[in-house]
Design goal:
Elements lengths: L2 H25 L6 H23 L7 H17 L5 H23 L4 H21 L9 E2 L4 E2 L5 E2 L6 H24 L1 H11 L1 H6 L4 H27 L1 E2 L6 H14 L4 H16 L7 H15 L4 H16 L1
Antiparallel strand pairs: 1-4, 2-3
Helix pairs in contact: 1-6, 2-6, 2-9, 2-10, 2-11, 3-4, 3-5, 3-9, 4-9, 6-7, 7-9, 10-11, 10-12
Length: about 325
C-alpha cells in the first residue's frame, strides 16, 4: 500500500461510515440518535487533540479537560455576560486555551513521565477550583442559555431538533478535517520529530531535534483541539458546568486515547465515538465513571498498544500458529 493511500484511507473510511450511519438512522426513523452522535463527534475531536500529544509526542497529560473547559467557558462568558457574537466567543476560547497551554507548557514540559503527569494534573485541579469558586463562571450551577453558533451554507451548532441533520454534518465534517490534519502532521517533518521524541528524547536531541519546541507545539495543538471541541459542545448543548472540567473528565480522555491506540488517530476516533455514544445513551448508568477507569486499567495491563493493534497482533499470532 502506497503512502498516499495509507494516509487518506482512514479519512475515506470515516466519511463512508458517517454517510452510511446518517442514512441508516433515517431509514430506521431514529433521527433522535443524531443528537448523541453529534456530541460524540465533538468529543472525538477533543480526543484527537490529546492523541497528538500522547500518541505522537509520547507525553502524558492529565489536564486535557481543563483546555476543553477553557474553550467552553470562554465562549459562554463572551456570549452571555459580555453579549458578544458566538464567533468571537469561539475565537476567544481558542486564544485563551493557546495562551494557557504556553504558560503551563513552558515550565512543565521540561519534566518527563509521571512528573509531567502530576504537573498537568495540578493544572486541571486549579482550573476546576477556579470555575467553582468564581461567580462569573456560574460556580456550581455553570452557565446556561448559551446561544447557538451559526455557520455558512445552513450549517449550525445548535441543539434544536429542527437542525439535527445540519449539526450532524457539521460535527463530523470538522472531525474529518481534524483527522486529515493529524494524518498530514504525522507524515511531515514535525511528525517525524515528534515520533523521534516519543522513542527517546535524548537520542532525538542528539540528532538535532529541538525537543522543547516540538513538545510545546504538540501541547498547544492538543489544547486548541480540546478548546475547539469544548466551545462547540457548549454552543450545541446551550451550557457548560463544573462537571465538564472535573479530573474524571481528564481520566476519560486518557482512557479513550489509550484504548484507541496512542499513535492511531483512526483508532482513537472509533473508540471515542462508540464509548461516548454509549455513555450519552445511559448504557453504563451509575457506573459510568467506573467503566472508563476500568477501561484505562485494563488497557494499561493487557493491551498498552490499544484495542485494534492488540486484536491485529492476536490475529497474526493465530495465523502464524496455524501456518
Amino acid at each position: 500500500m502506497s503512502r498516499a493511500v495509507s494516509r487518506f484511507l482512514p479519512l475515506v473510511v470515516l466519511l463512508a461510515l458517517v454517510v452510511g450511519i446518517r442514512y441508516l438512522v433515517g431509514a430506521l426513523h431514529q433521527e433522535f440518535l443524531l443528537t448523541p452522535l453529534t456530541m460524540s463527534g465533538y468529543s472525538a475531536l477533543a480526543a484527537l487533540g490529546l492523541c497528538l500529544f500522547m500518541g505522537y509526542a509520547g507525553q502524558v497529560s492529565l489536564g486535557h479537560a481543563a483546555f476543553v473547559a477553557i474553550g467552553g467557558y470562554t465562549s459562554a462568558v463572551m456570549c452571555t455576560v459580555i453579549h458578544l457574537p458566538p464567533w468571537i466567543g469561539l475565537v476567544a476560547g481558542l486564544a485563551a486555551a493557546g495562551i494557557a497551554a504556553v504558560i503551563v507548557g513552558l515550565p512543565s514540559l521540561r519534566l518527563r513521565g509521571h512528573y509531567l503527569a502530576m504537573a498537568t494534573l495540578s493544572f486541571g485541579i486549579i482550573v476546576s477550583r477556579i470555575v467553582v469558586a468564581t461567580g462569573v463562571f456560574g460556580q456550581a450551577d455553570g452557565i446556561y442559555n448559551v446561544p447557538p453558533l451559526r455557520l455558512v451554507a445552513g450549517l449550525a451548532v445548535s441543539g434544536k431538533k429542527a437542525l439535527r441533520v445540519q449539526n450532524y454534518w457539521t460535527a463530523w465534517g470538522l472531525v474529518a478535517v481534524g483527522l486529515l490534519l493529524a494524518r498530514n502532521l504525522a507524515a511531515s517533518r514535525t511528525g517525524r520529530a515528534l515520533m523521534a521524541i516519543h522513542g527517546d528524547e535524548d537520542a532525538a536531541s542528539a540528532l538535532g531535534v529541538n525537543v522543547g519546541r516540538h513538545k510545546l507545539a504538540a501541547f498547544v495543538a492538543s489544547a486548541l483541539f480540546g478548546a475547539l471541541a469544548g466551545s462547540l459542545l457548549t454552543h450545541y448543548s446551550g451550557g457548560i458546568g463544573p462537571s465538564d472540567v472535573s479530573i474524571m473528565k481528564s481520566i476519560r480522555w486518557v482512557a479513550l486515547v489509550a484504548a484507541g491506540g496512542m499513535g492511531s488517530a483512526g483508532g482513537v476516533l472509533a473508540v471515542t465515538t462508540v464509548l461516548t455514544f454509549l455513555s450519552l445513551r445511559g448504557v453504563f448508568g451509575f457506573y459510568d465513571d467506573a467503566v472508563f477507569a476500568a477501561i484505562l486499567l485494563a488497557i494499561m495491563l493487557f493491551a498498552p498498544q490499544g484495542i485494534f493493534r492488540a486484536a491485529l497482533s492476536l490475529i497474526r499470532r493465530k495465523r502464524g500458529a496455524a501456518a
